[in-house]
């Protein structure tokens, strides 16, 4: 038994906890992806040098803004930056020196140690959609999200074999006051799933609530010494670091919890229209953000983030799965590896209103891009619809199914004696077939990835069953999965303590919906 598990069991529960563990259904989750295939690189060494030099010029001559955050300005001044009002100009080489203390990889612990993930290296951790205010399904259409929707997404994520992480704001439950909903969301992740999860970043006090609730779940000593959350800190591109996100970053860095430092790039609006220009801005923003995290606490775990899309110059709408966004993501991956930092990008990005062909094409481009660009933490890996405005139940299970294809692709080519299959080739010889040979019989169950959703039946059987398209099959899969859901065991003492914390926090403040 792990130290954390022993502490949880010893603190809370005795017989009730042990009975709950014995009767719990074990949900199979694949280990995070470990790549055994080469990464795709689009920039040569000269191009990387130019982008790096240009980013240093941006930081030194143009600078970045840390707004409404006097403490951050003072920290930068003490670190050697030139601070003029809210503008911070970072001398050449200072940011690069500061980020040297950031770890190249870290372990995020789950309450079930079997679900721990290692972020960095050649690993890829998949987490679900994050942030949409709307949800959609075939039965009720598009609507504002509720807490009931949120809990259903957490359950789907827990039951999804290829999803390694429970995520964070899988949808925005608008039926709960803004200043209190983070408490319900965190409790849902902590109690309805035993996979790793993300903390709140919408206010520094909510980040602190996240740390405090993790102290209840894992034990305060364990949280102090280990990373149990990976949370998203967006930069207001171009080159602006606001007090809310930086306040959350400060809380998490001080408590040794991981942050994704991620520019929010819509090419042509928040960054230049050119690939090299956007990469220069991305690198400058990431260097400044990660350097600031290391000023707060050297060694605090961080991820080099890059949310990248382009803009339709006719409508102004963001576009996804485009060649330009792919080139930027590939390049950003090279830059992250150049600095020895974990990388976050890609996902099931699309601009479609429904889980249709557009959604599938654009998402497939973005998901495969994530695998080949060296992404280590893929937020939005399933469920994203309508440019991130909607969390779709059907799209969630469609995407989660396809993550299995990424898992198998990442394994690479088996060159063992069994993989070479010379015995099969000798046995069958010219003109035969391999269906009944010994090698096929020994390997067929694990040789090919098989979708748990897509239809491969003969036309006649498909027609007899109602000519169901993929969205219809996904709707059935959502209902089946939720009906089969069983909550993972949790020490009753911990569950009671979480309930009490949430109730006390909610009672301490009036409702606010803005």
Automatic annotation (TrEMBL):
Region listing for Disordered, in residue ranges: 1-21
E.C. number(s) listed in UniProt: 2.1.1.-
Gene3D superfamilies found in the cross-reference section: Trimethylamine methyltransferase-like (3.20.20.480)
Top-level taxon: Bacteria
Keyword terms, alphabetized: Methyltransferase, Transferase
InterPro entries: MttB-like_sf, MTTB_MeTrfase
A single BP term in Gene Ontology: methylation
Record has DNA repair as a keyword: no
Pfam families, alphabetized: MTTB
Molecular-function annotations in GO: methyltransferase activity
Family per record: Belongs to the trimethylamine methyltransferase family.
Protein name as catalogued: Methyltransferase
The organism of origin for this protein: Roseovarius indicus
